[in-house]
Write a structure and sequence with these properties.
mainly alpha; globular; single chain; 195 residues; 9 helices
Length: 195
């Protein structure tokens, strides 16, 4: 059992990419009050747990019922990320954060923490290792993300306010690129599915 959990954990870790999600979290929450950040962290972790659990138990049935493919999911998630990054890059970011304080659910909880790669890995792990190892691997990886988010402020203190603003803009550009990448992969997935 422990061996199966470990085997499921490693690919799930790379699919979830906790370290890669951290800078995007920093970018999306830059300038927020500590209480708001804590709320965002709780919201994002809860959303990612719920989405992963629902998908593990009902994913295939839901996608089949709605006629949604993984490619469709990738395109939708990528479009959301791209739009959010454009708001930041064009100076609308601060106003957007005040208006949309629920970025913890979308895009951080999903599709950043639990996105197409993680959902795909959930299906693969269910087939290869079973229910318990899959649930355990998802829970452990989400816990790692939570720890990194909690200590994100310490990272910001190290680089300073001006460094934080510069990093935020660079990361917004990176977020736009990730959104485009997800859209591109989604289109490729859709084209493969159509053939």
């Amino acid at each position: 059992m422990m061996n199966d959990v470990l085997l499921a954990f490693v690919p799930m870790f790379f699919a979830m990419d906790p370290v890669g999600v951290l800078p995007i979290f920093v970018s999306l929450t830059e300038g927020m009050e500590p209480a708001a950040k804590r709320r965002i962290i709780g919201q994002s972790l809860l959303t990612s747990v719920i989405v992963a659990a629902v998908f593990i138990f009902l994913g295939r049935a839901i996608f089949k019922f709605l006629g949604i493919t993984m490619g469709d999911f990738m395109v939708a998630g990528g479009a959301i990320l791209f739009c959010l990054s454009m708001l930041d890059l064009t100076g609308q970011g601060k106003r957007r954060r005040e208006k949309f304080a629920d970025v913890g659910a979308v895009p951080i909880g999903t599709p950043l923490i639990v996105g197409p790669a993680v959902l795909t890995m959930c299906l693969v792990s269910m087939t290869q290792y079973g229910l318990v190892p899959t649930l355990a691997s998802v829970a452990m990886n989400i816990a790692i993300v939570g720890v990194l988010f909690v200590f994100a402020d310490a990272f910001i203190r190290v680089i300073g306010p001006s460094g934080s603003r510069a990093l935020s803009k660079v990361l917004s550009l990176l977020l736009a690129a990730i959104g485009v990448m997800m859209i591109r992969r989604g289109i490729v997935e859709i084209m493969t599915f159509v053939r």
